[in-house]
Each structure stands twice: as structure tokens, then as C-alpha cells.
């Protein structure tokens, strides 16, 4: 019996009284915790796990999907199911306006991007409204997958008036650095965060299961003059990011009993 098969062999004898899928889930979690399954290790197929544990493939699928939803496992289309990389959750302050590159650099993480789109387009009605553009204006769109320590964390889709950024191909690792070089780096922003379930395309890019929890983040950034310079819609992995805000009691306000 292989080491992987041994993990599943005694599922029926463990956790008496608990549903079989929960027993299998615990067996896999325990194997990950004690190092019998390491980050990046591939799990056997559903068929093989079902045969080793003497349970149905439906039960195996339910246990695996549960672990994927909780970030213990990841599924890659056409490749199989793997133990998820160990990843510390990233905390980002809501009180500072920083770029993804700056955030990750402060944490000592290796950052890279995969470009999904860079081009100049006629603006959509949403971009016209957010950026204050006329129908005749053009907009630079930059979309990229943001990766830290080989883990995809976010998909950023930014729109900037072509007047501020005529050539999106001039962007290196940081959009804000490119804007600063042109004298139009934003100094403040309004950001809206909402929960979402990731669709199939975004989930595949972020290497999670479709329907996994994510965060939609919409940001409008402003120049010192008050003019809008950036309209960005991002999707972040819900299992990797925490947004933190410091709250202060207003001057002269008491605390209700």
C-alpha cells in the first residue's frame, strides 16, 4: 500500500458516528498537519481515494470540495487536486494609499505580474462616469494577475485617462510609479469593498475553485487638484487577504451604556 493510500485506508474506522465525508476530510487535514502530505503534493484521483477508503466517489468529492473551499486543497483544471501552498494571510491597511507592489515589498515577498491586457480603448459608459471623460476621450486599460511568492492573490483591472497615461506599455512593475513619473500620482482614494463568489474565469486565474469566496474592490483615486486619475476594479482571494481599518472615537463623543 502506498503512503498516500494508507492515509485513506482507515477512514471508516475513524470518527465513529460522524458522516463519512467528514471522516475523510479529517484524515486529509491530519495528514497535511503532520506533514504526511506536503504543500504542492498531488492527491490520488477520486476513484483511487474511494477504492482505498472503501467509500463512494460522491463522498470523496464532497470532502475534497469542502477542503478546497477552506483553502486546504487547490484544484487545477486538467491537472488534479493538490495540497495548497502554506500562505500567511496578507493584511492591508485601509488608511494608506499604496500599490500592490509597495504592499508586498514591505512584507519581503517576491512579486510578479502576468499581463492580461494593456491597451488604449474608447471608454465604456462606466469609465466615462468614473473618470469624468467625454465620449471622444480615450482610456488606457491595464489588467494583470498579481502574484506574491508564486501564489496568485489578485486580479487588477485599472482604467486611466489616456491623457495621464498615453502608453500603458510604459508601466513596469508598478502603475503608481509610472503615474508618478508623469507627475500624476494619486494622493487619495475612495475604496469600496464587497464580498463575492468567484466566477469560473477569475477562479482559474487565482487557482481556486469556482464559487470560492473573494473580495471585489472598486477604487477611484484622485490627484491633489481633486481630478480623478484612476478607476480600478480588482478581485482578491478571500482566503489570502484581510483589510484592516483603525477606528477612533470622535472628539466629544461618549460611549452609549
Automatic annotation (TrEMBL):
It comes from the Bacteria. Signal peptide: none annotated. Residues 18-86 form the HTH gntR-type domain. Gene3D superfamilies: Chorismate lyase-like, Winged helix-like DNA-binding domain superfamily/Winged helix DNA-binding domain. InterPro entries: Bact_HTH_transcr_reg (IPR050679), Chorismate_lyase_/UTRA_dom_sf (IPR028978), Tscrpt_reg_HTH_GntR (IPR000524), UTRA (IPR011663), WH-like_DNA-bd_sf (IPR036388), WH_DNA-bd_sf (IPR036390). Keywords: DNA-binding, Transcription, Transcription regulation. GO terms for biological process: negative regulation of DNA-templated transcription. Pfam families: GntR, UTRA. The keyword DNA-binding applies. The keyword DNA-binding applies. GO terms for molecular function: DNA binding; DNA-binding transcription factor activity. This is GntR family transcriptional regulator. It comes from Mesorhizobium denitrificans.
Amino acid at each position: 500500500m502506498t503512503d498516500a493510500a494508507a492515509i485513506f485506508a482507515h477512514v471508516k474506522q475513524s470518527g465513529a458516528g460522524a458522516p463519512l465525508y467528514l471522516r475523510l476530510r479529517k484524515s486529509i487535514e491530519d495528514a497535511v498537519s503532520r506533514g504526511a502530505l506536503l504543500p504542492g503534493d498531488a492527491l490520488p484521483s477520486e476513484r483511487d481515494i474511494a477504492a482505498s477508503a472503501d467509500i463512494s466517489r460522491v463522498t470523496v468529492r464532497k470532502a475534497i470540495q469542502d477542503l478546497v473551499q477552506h483553502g486546504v486543497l487547490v484544484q487545477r483544471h486538467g491537472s488534479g487536486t493538490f495540497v495548497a501552498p502554506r500562505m500567511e494571510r496578507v493584511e492591508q491597511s485601509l488608511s494608506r494609499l499604496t500599490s500592490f507592489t509597495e504592499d508586498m515589498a514591505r512584507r519581503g515577498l517576491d512579486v510578479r505580474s502576468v499581463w492580461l491586457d494593456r491597451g488604449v480603448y474608447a471608454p465604456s459608459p462606466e469609465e466615462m462616469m468614473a473618470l469624468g471623460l467625454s465620449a471622444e476621450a480615450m482610456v488606457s486599460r491595464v489588467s494583470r494577475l498579481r502574484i506574491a511568492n508564486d501564489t496568485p492573490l489578485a486580479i487588477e483591472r485599472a482604467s486611466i485617462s489616456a491623457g495621464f497615461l498615453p502608453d500603458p506599455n510604459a508601466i513596469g512593475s508598478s502603475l503608481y510609479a509610472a503615474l508618478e513619473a508623469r507627475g500624476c500620482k494619486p494622493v487619495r482614494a475612495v475604496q469600496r469593498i464587497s464580498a463575492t463568489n468567484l466566477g469560473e474565469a477569475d477562479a482559474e486565474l487565482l487557482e481556486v475553485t469556482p464559487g470560492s469566496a473573494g473580495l471585489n474592490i472598486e477604487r477611484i483615486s484622485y490627484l491633489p487638484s481633486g481630478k480623478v486619475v484612476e478607476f480600478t476594479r480588482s478581485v482578491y482571494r478571500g482566503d489570502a487577504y484581510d483589510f484592516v481599518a483603525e477606528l477612533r472615537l470622535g472628539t466629544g463623543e461618549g460611549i452609549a451604556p
